[in-house]
Amino acid sequence: MDMEIEEIITVGSLIGGRWLVQRRLGKGGYGMVFAVEDIKGTGKFAMKVEIRKRTLSKLRKEVFILKKLARSTHACRYVDSGRHEQIEYLVMTKTGHDLHELRKKTKNKRFDIAAILQIGIQCIEALRDLHEIGFIHRDVKPSNFTIGISKSGKQTIYLLDFGLAFQFGTYGRSHPRSGRSSFHGTLRYASFNAHGEKALGMHDDLIALFYTLAELYRGHLPWSGEEGKYHLGLAKLKADINDMFGDMPNEIVDVYKRLVRKSCEDPVDHGGIIETFVAAATRIGAPGRLNLNFAHSLDDSIASVSTASLVSEKNLKDTRKKKKWKSYFHFPRRHSKML
């Protein structure tokens, strides 16, 4: 796939009669990202491309979602989209490095609690904005959150990669429908419900976010050494909550405990969770805004790149343990009893 795209797009190519390709920024699970400049003089942007397909296009889904998120302060701004020869493209604003890369650049490979709380507030706001337009993300992880500078000069977190997003807000529904589903997401960060092939809800995005915050704060997750869907899922269910979150504020850990008791049809009080994070930040005297120390320009950054970690069912299924696995997830409150 990559070679096909590179045969069509090279440095100096003019796409859509407007976008001059400057260099390749990266590649993801279903496409590539290039740095482009508008020959009309409006600036430099990121262009995400994929080979045109007859099946459902992940890129077209991203276009739809970005347009819906036009008013969100935590989404890249949609600029343009279209077709060029055998590819489809999406042009959007560029952002800075992702949280995974930024964590690795810190002295101890972890953020302090003040940064974690401010990161958490903005990430929850980003997921709230997505949920309010009727979508769940299904691939929340550190590399899908980047930091940029807003028009007001504030460090702002942006939510990326909607290739695996699922629309639940149709036919008057305000929440996802319960049932079974194939695995979606990234094994390391996916909600334990994803391992049980359950239909995912808004709370699963937030559970994955809490895994993300735990890793950003602790530098690791209790299941870091595990491999495979089955073993990772069990490790998440059996993980010691103190090992997972360390000395994070108790009120934050309590939010996680409430989330794991929810089903996919339960509503999520984003505002209440944000208030809890704000109160915790105030109690410990954390700054009122995100203030990470990082020295890089947006022109030199890695722009939004989809990783689309949808692993095939063939590679994930363990037929010898399938019956045991399903019975383990039969009771949705079992995980909460272990906390």
Automatic annotation (TrEMBL):
PROSITE patterns according to UniProt: PROTEIN_KINASE_ATP (PS00107), PROTEIN_KINASE_DOM (PS50011), PROTEIN_KINASE_ST (PS00108)
Name of the top EC class for this enzyme: transferase
Pfam families linked: Pkinase (PF00069)
Nucleotide-binding listed as a keyword: yes
Claim: ATP-binding is one of the keywords in the record: yes
Entry-linked SMART domains: S_TKc
Transmembrane residue ranges: none
EC number(s) from the headed UniProt entry: 2.7.11.1
PANTHER family for the chain: CASEIN KINASE-RELATED
Protein name: non-specific serine/threonine protein kinase
Organism: Trichuris muris
